[in-house]
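Example 3.2
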Amino acid sequence: MRRVWAVGLGLVLAGAPACARRPEVEAARAELMAADRAFAEATARRGAEGWTSYFAEDARQFHTRGVSIGTAQIREAMTRAFADTTRRLVWRPVYAELGRSADLGYTIGRWESRALGKDGGWTVEGTGSYVTIWRRRGDGSWKVAVDIGNQDAPPPDSGRH
């Protein structure tokens, strides 16, 4: 019986460091979600410059035209995309996860493409999901390492194929 208690106590003590780290992981996860929300806000305010400011210099962005590598290519691709002020890209993260070292993580979320109508209101033209892989920098801030999104299939009765 003594051996069972010793093994049980050993298991509890072995798990203690992981439990002690849990609040730190949750705090880092919250930081990552906040970084993704700030990324969306900066893009809404500053367009391509806001978008690009969240990418690491060596980042990759996958899009319908291929992949842009590095902030210069990403800025070029997104300047064209954000040039039309009658269109908006909005998104919200719904989940974040971190690697064991908490210096690499990802967010998953939903996006919408909106168009300004003649009535002055915004209509949703497209929706989809995304995953963004983030890397923590030495100063503690998060930068996008890889961004990938996909568009939802149109509803069957939309007439689009």
